[in-house]
Amino acid sequence: MRKLSKVAALVCAALSMPAVAQTIEGTVATSQGKPIVGAKVELEGLGLQVLTDAKGNFLFEDVKEGKNEIHVSAQGFTHLHEDVDVLSSTPSKITFTLSKSPIEVIDVIASPIHLSSMESAIPVHVLGGEALRRDQAATLGDSLEQLPGVHTSFHAKVASTPIIRGLSGPRVLIAQNGLDVSDVSRVGPDHAVTSEASTAQQIEVLRGPATLFYGSGAIGGVVNVVDQRVPTSNDTKGEWLLETSSVDKQKLGSFNATIGAGDFAFYADGFFRDSDDYNVPVAPELELEDDDHGHEGEGEGEDKKHGKNFKVANSSEKSSGFTVGTSYLLDNGYVGVSVEQYNREYGIPGHSHEDEEGHGDEEGHEHGEEGHSDEEVFADLEQTKIQFLSKLSVRDSIISGFNTRIGYTDYEHAEVENSEVGTNFKNETFEARVEVIHQSFWGFNGGVSFHYKKSDVEAQGSEAFTPPSETEMFAVALMEERHIGDVLLQFGARTERVTLTADRVLLPSLDAHEHDDRHMDEDGHDHEDGHDHEHEDVHGGDASIIRTFYAEHEFTPVSVSLGALWDFTPGYNLGLSISRSQRAPSASELLSFGPHIGTRTYEVGALFALEQHDGIDEIGLTDEIIDLETASNIDLSFRKTQGHIGFIFNVFYNQVDNYYYQIDTGLFADDGHNHGDEEGHEDEHGGELPVFIFQTDDVILNGFEAQIAWQVNDTFNTTVFSDFVRARLKNGGNLPRTPPFRFGTQLSYETETISAHLDITRYQAQERISAFETETDGYTLVDLHADYTLPYFNESMAVYFKGENLSDTEARVHTSFLKDLAPRPGRNFTVGIKGYF
């Protein structure tokens, strides 16, 4: 028999670690010695976890000899990390004591290393349980806006995306169970996010760069919606709710359920929502002081300013969806698949044209009162999503586990005008991520992630401002953490290859002009990355040249992060995170060229440039290098985790070089619609949109988030919070639509049968604005939520009441593209019933 080489012997030894039949057993209890039932005890680096029984006891068998890291968590308590030495001679017995926490601590699920709001170097917040049910709304951004550091883009209640520390759009990744939602919500503010909060288990928010976990699309943060569509246990459980609201006559119903049969588990969820146009306390359209004629409100009422009959026109919606999933449960994990169908039909309030309902244009010209007053513009959305998820642990090997996520999404939405499809958006995405988790060695826990994503995005129609394109990404990332005494070190690196291609980018004919009617002719120039093709387009005998070209750009974003968490004294810790993240520009940022009614602008991408030749403004292909966006971020956190008072203070500084944003050219272009009156007379400025072009600059964003919670006694809890972001150009000037300074408080009362929460939130006026913005007044919102658990149903059913904007305040969201047309809803009352099993 041939002898093994030294290298082969070492490999065999690494892949065949001998199992030592030792045990770890113990108890989890409160500081008063009472057992904690259902506490989660996890062996880090091994993927093994158990729940404590009715006496607070737990047991691990066949544990390897030596040092093992254990993490213990329970609802309402601080988490605990401790090293346990397993000896070969005797079983290890230990008691873990958890202290009460006034701030709820929930673990992030979709992460290969341990993250929570109190135990991470990077700022994390998880919204789950009853807090999620209280805050859930029809759109994702509105559901999360109560979290410190998170605001909403609020597009007239029918669409919204989260804004994290002043960043949104392509810089904030929105995921479902760790995979991109793959809609087109990051292309325009009027595009809905295809994720439903009412059926979610929890929503995870990572503030600041999260590129190591999710890719360069998360340079500003990530929102991950987690549900149990691929069940991890065969326990029978679920929840349901029914509710109705007054402000928009909304009717909502949802459920989710998990059942099991042997080694198989089955899951199903579903929801429906139907709402009318919503009421507002004032005329929806803001009357500007410098407008000679003013803007007439879209509602009806005797008083121009205040009344009870004002509505935001075309803000109704109907949506429904269902998900079915199944998994096969193994001794070392699970493997499962799910299928989701999501449908939504909603109005687009910002899609109206200037001549509707007698509105004046910006020069004070009146248009015909008939116009398109009966025009209805709405989006008809449909999405099918398939996900394959698995988590498998491995024993007696250098590898401790494999986490696999594979998803396929087929998305389509049509924008319908006057019963005809005006523009159709499509997004077909395939994504796969595999995380290889290694055994703990030299005290390090973590692994390597392999990530692939391919998206085909297409827009066809009169308002398709971005040409069809394909984006392909492949990435490799390393994430590790290690405890050294009282310090937790977290670090990682990620490199990507991103390829953006568009076969036939159209360089359309553009007649743009200033309001002194000085016309500008568009001229195209060859680009070094593409090839021009000329096509003759004949209309009524007049021939014009339409030029197209092939565009291909390849980027290599590299991101690195280093963090440390220091438990410098019991119940307190300091966190520091330093990162450098890069992002490839999106297709819309580079290739846009056309009217974007959702933003009420004519968008031109960064691939083009505005130049002057012989005193004439021209738009052609740019000679500038298309480069990566690079963010250098520092986060400092100070937390108190135990006792009657807890707090989280975060301070951040983020410098983004080569930041892609839009500037106002001072030019105007036709929106592509006919704006003549009934007799066919053309209106000189009726269909104009301001021309905005993407350019790059260096920007600085800095600010803070603060949260303090005081558990007064067993029933009363008080929380105060505040957040602030300053977003400015490095060379002077402000970024547009920056959230204002905000602060608020929540007073909570909870017993076994009754819970009540009073929220008071103050939004200060926003006076730091860009050149094309207007200032926004401050306002205060008062909300109340109350639950009553029905004692006759074994505490498994409750009725609830919500009162929102109880003072019926005029509230205009500065971060919204429709702030002057669609304020927040007025006073709203919601009643509902929910149950658990």
Automatic annotation (TrEMBL):
The keyword Membrane applies. Keywords: Cell outer membrane, Membrane, Receptor, Signal, TonB box, Transmembrane, Transmembrane beta strand, Transport. Residues 1-21 form the signal peptide. InterPro entries: Beta-barrel_TonB, Beta-barrel_TonB_sf, CarboxyPept-like_regulatory, Plug_dom, Plug_dom_sf, TonB-dep_rcpt-like. GO terms for cellular component: cell outer membrane. It is a multi-pass membrane protein. It comes from the Bacteria. One of its GO terms (biological process) is siderophore transmembrane transport. Residues 286-311, 347-372, 513-538 are annotated as: Disordered. Residues 118-222 form the TonB-dependent receptor plug domain. It holds the Pfam family TonB_dep_Rec_b-barrel. Residues 292-305, 351-372 have a biased composition (Basic and acidic residues). It is found in: Cell outer membrane. GO terms for molecular function: siderophore uptake transmembrane transporter activity. Residues 396-806 form the TonB-dependent receptor-like beta-barrel domain. Belongs to the TonB-dependent receptor family. This is TonB-dependent receptor. It comes from Agaribacter marinus.
